[in-house]
Amino acid sequence: MSLLVESSKAPPRMPSYLEAGHTVRSWLFTLDHKRIGILYMAAITVFFSIAASAAALMRIELLTPAGDVVTSETYNRLFTMHGVLMVWFFLIPSIPSVLGNFIIPLMIGARDVAFPRLNLLSWYLFMAGGILATYSIVAGGVDTGWTFYTPYSSTYSNGHVMAMAAGVFIAGFSSIATGLNFIVTIHKLRAPGLTWTRLPLFLWSMYATSIILVLATPVLAITLVLMAMERLWGVGIFDPKLGGDPLLFQHLFWFYSHPAVYIMILPGMGVVSETLAAFARKPVFGYRVVAASSMAIAILGFLVWGHHMFVSSQSVYAGVVFSLLSFLVAVPSAIKVFSWTATLYRGHITFETPMLYALGFIGLFTVGGLTGIFLASLAVDVHVHDTYFVIAHFHYIMVGGMVMAYMGGLHYWWPKISGRLYHEWTARIAALITFIGFNLTFFPQFVLGYLGMPRRYHMYPEQFQTLNVLSTAGASILAVGYALPLFYLGWSFFFGRRAGPNPWGATGLEWKTASPAPEHNFETTPVVTTGAYAYDAEGNP
Amino acid sequence: MNDALSHPAAPPYVDRDQHSVANHLGMWTFLATEILFFGGLFTGYTVLRWAHPHAFAEGSRHLEFWIGTANTAVLLTSSLFVALADLAIKRDDRRAARRHLVAAGLLGAAFLGLKGFEYFQKFQEHLVPGSGFDAHGAQPALQLFFFLYFLMTGLHALHMLFGLGAIGWLLRQIGRGAVSRERPDAVAIVGLYWHFVDCVWIFLYPLLYLIGG
Ligand SMILES: [Cu+2]
Question: CATH number for the domain including B47?
């Protein structure tokens, strides 16, 4: 990708987005997509910390077989809090709302997203939802699990279900607003010459993600409304005693929540494609197929929700169909892994921090994806359903995949965000610690699950202790890996070396403008003449 | 744009055409969200009606056929006026555009009035779930029908209220000249929304009123 219009020799420097106003007001009422991305970053860091503390408490409880640290009641509330906050208040907004908001307009050569006010509104909705969820936790918590299964949630639970559900409901509208904004932005605001087949793959993955955000989230919203109404009025729409159907809830919930899994992985895949191209200094192998596989995942992802219900009373024939379709969705995911591997082949590879995270992603995502195939097989699923095998599987995708990708993307675009470089070796070590800690935490859980340890219990038989101690030890290492960036990125923000516009020597419009990005992104509207990742044989952009 | 800010963010558009197509696509995308939102309810309706066909037919017979039918006519006519307003603004006839919008708004209000009257009737007949519901000797699943009736028509009415607000806003914008032949988009975009809400009713009407036989 290159600019036809080079900026003149000594342009009057535009103020960076960070210099454009220093008051609290200039942040809280900003319409600048970059600042809104930063607002999201601050918010999700807080929610991540709360949710991670809940996980830490659970891991401490599971050090010993006896339930001696918290009661089973408290434990239920801890894993619900962990799940709800991590899913809706960290993972779903992580790459889309933070990195997507910041980088999408820069990548397409636009001045902002299509609807800046809606973008700001989405942050306020997110915060309103987050505050309600936090209130529900402070008031005593919820014990339903993040899935809110009925009729437990609607009739029997004595937790603060209404506040929590209201929080998720409202945060859902912030997801919809973000998805809508990205769809229109990518369709209508691309710079001249930036055709669909020249679009960086991060944009393809964000486009696919946005489609899921817009089409799946409203189903969650109406499902939560029905659940809340049932709880409020005692009408049994999901209660078999009153003529309702509890499976209806599960169908509606997973119709959202399975596609939501792809909201939590597709953006990560986009980041990995960008990072690999930048640090292998090669175009991504099979660009068109990788782009198409993002769309295929978004579409097929809507057809597989029943694999969460193999041991519900869902019909066996439905189970068979859902099982086959779930195998099918593995195909586009595998295509991506093959393409990434082929991208590395004969590349000019260097191992900067974002690259370490991206390589970690590929390994962990592959493990998570392959164990997903086990779970999509009807017979195997009956054995490992609701065991730690499932926990390990989806943490390999969501933490090993999405969180690694978020960290990788954050490091990759950090120079554009802060205008500065971080200390490379500290960051590399943190990436390595995260990788080791993650595997030590979650690999033993595959074994535990296979041996039959069920999820969501605060005590367990003694023969499981060794593996649980390993897992808790891994969690402590993982905590160090997550804490380190707070310090060295914080330090870099104020004292780091100036980065310059393109510290990685990468292609992409976002690297053609100053760092930190100017308030209006570009001095002159860029014109694109080549496809994404136009590196020559020596790996020069 | 908030003028109080020292550096207001730039509008992202290069020209009015780009802005216009973006607004249209934004509304269409929003309507896609809406379809899935109501879709969840229609799924619930289908599943429960399959489970309790007789109770649902019985529930339908408790609704006022004439109110549902009158409301269908009222709403379709209001959509006609919104479409006429769109044509009028494109001809630069702002007076006609406002007249048509007022007519559409009044019909929308009439719809809500009739709906409210029907709600009141049901309340008197103890057919409101959660407040002393009396199945009149029919199956308990009758309550599920009325729960869906109130939730679906209630959410529809809520959308109507937003639509009325949007029409009120349009009237003001046209009056101020902010919406005119040069900038007619807002009418078409509010119109899209209004027609969508109309379409939802076109599905609700047979599902709720016409299945009793
Ligand atoms: Cu799934």
Answer: 1.20.120.80
Determine the residue of chain A that is closest to B20 in CA distance. Answer: A188
> Within a 13 Å sphere around the CA of B12, how many CA atoms are in the beta-carbon half?
30
Contact A382, A476 (CB under 8 A): no
Number of CB atoms found within 10 A of residue B194's CB? 28
Cα angle A297, A167, A175; round to 5: 35
**Residues of chain B contacting A188 with CB distance shorter than 8 Å:** 18, 21-22, 25
Please, what is the end-to-end C-alpha distance for chain B in angstroms? 56
What is the reported pLDDT for B5?
Answer: 35
Chain B CB contacts of A32 below 8 Å: 9
User: At B212, is the pLDDT very low, low, confident or very high (cuts 50, 70, 90)?
Assistant: confident
Q: Which two tokens stand for residue A137?
A: 């936790």
Residue A261 Cα to ligand 1 midpoint, Å, equals 7
Domain count, chain B: 1
Other C-beta atoms lying within 10 Å of the C-beta of residue A270: 30
Check A214 against B141: CB less than 8 A apart: no
CA of A439 to the centre of ligand 1 (A): 22
Q: Distance between CA atoms of A462 and B43, rounded to whole angstroms? A: 46
Residue A415 touches partner B, C-beta closer than 8 Å: no
For A207, the token pair is 């486009």
A242 touches chain B (CB under 8 A): yes
Question: What interface predicted TM-score (ipTM) does this complex get?
Answer: 0.93
CA distance A177 to B20: 18
Cross-chain residue pair A245–B47, CB shorter than 8 Å: yes
Distance from CA of B176 to the nearest CA of A (A): 22
Out of A184, A221, A252, closest to residue B25 by CB: A184
Give pLDDT < 50 ranges for chain A: 1-10
Containing domain of residue B96, as a range? 41-123+133-209
Q: Which of residues 111-140 of A touch B (CB under 8 A)?
A: 111-116
Contact residues on chain A for B148, CB-CB shorter than 8 A? 237
Asked if A31 lies within 8 A of B8 by C-beta distance, the reply is yes
- Beta partners for A518? A16
B25 lies within 8 A of chain A by CB: yes
Q: Report the C-alpha dihedral over residues A321, A325, A327, A330, rounded to 10 degrees.
A: -170
Q: Which residues of chain A make contact with B50, given a CB cutoff of 8 A?
A: none
Asked if residue B201 is part of any domain, the answer here is yes
- Is B18 part of a structural domain of the chain? no
Contact A372, A397 (CB under 8 A): yes
Q: Show the domains of chain A with their CATH numbers.
A: 33-528 (1.20.210.10)
**C-alpha neighbours within 13 Å on the C-beta side of residue A72:** 7
Give the model confidence (pLDDT) of B51-61 as tens digits.
Answer: 999 999 999 99
Asked if the structure places residue B34 within a domain, the reply is: no
A114/B144 touch (CB, cutoff 8 Å), yes or no: no
Model confidence pLDDT, tens digit, residues A314-364: 899 999 999 999 999 999 999 999 999 999 999 999 999 999 999 999 999
Provide the terminal-to-terminal Cα distance of chain A, rounded to the nearest Å.
8
Helix axes A266-280, A246-263, angle to 10 degrees: 10
C-alpha–C-alpha distance, residues A437 and A432, integer Å: 8
- The burial class, CB within 10 Å (0-12 / 13-18 / 19+), for A432 is middle
Gap between the Cα atoms of A14 and A11, Å rounded:
9
